[in-house]
Amino acid sequence: MRHFRRLMIFAILIAQAYWVSAQANKDEKKKSSNQIQWYSFEKVYELNKKKPKKTVVDVYTDWCGWCKKMDAETFMDPVITEYMKKYFYCVKMNAEMKDTIIIDGTTFINPGRNGKRQTHQLANELLRGSMSYPSYVFLNENGQRLTVVQGYQPAKEFEAVLHYFGDDAYLKNSWAEFQSGFKGKIK
């Protein structure tokens, strides 16, 4: 009888371990499906040739606390991720990265030397020298800058911004008109 109890306890422990593992896999799949697909500038340039879409560029730095908050909260909201995946190509750009970026024959570099932190030329160009982190640059299907939204944006507020550009409302309405009538999914 004692052997049987040990065997039953062992079987229950194995079943629980299996259930916990299955839940973890389920949660991981759900999490990965709710994540934004971030591309490089070069990849977006190529994708846009085949299927034009607007682009949103998240310009951030590694030391920016509000950038991290945006990643952990707003960019993890399922309403935000779903909408961004559907209507935008998304680029995440570290404004102080060292990579060389070549777009349509134009080369952009970070001119920093001797380990000094300096702004990448493309970040400077996108933000037109108004360096504030985080910043979100909205580009039309032709890569032309529509606007820059600066600072941390809670999901509810960012949802309205995304729809204003993603739904082409900016072509018909002022921001104030659009915002006063916008009813989003985020409460």
Please characterize this protein's 3D structure:
The protein has 187 residues and is of the alpha/beta class. It folds into two domains: 1-33; 34-181, Glutaredoxin (3-Layer(aba) Sandwich), CATH 3.40.30. Helices cover 46% and strands 18% of the residues. The chain contains seven helices and seven strands, in the order H-E-H-E-H-H-E-E-E-H-E-E-H-H. It has helices spanning 2-33, 41-50, 65-72, 78-87, 121-127, 155-166, 175-181; strands spanning 38-39, 54-60, 88-94, 101-103, 106-108, 135-139, 145-150. The chain has a five-stranded mixed beta sheet. A hairpin with a 2-residue loop joins strand 4 and strand 5 (106-108). Helix 4 runs parallel beside helix 6. The N and C termini lie far apart (57 Å). Mean pLDDT is 86; it is low at 17-22 and 24-32.
Please give a quick description of this structure:
46% of the residues lie in helices and 18% in strands.
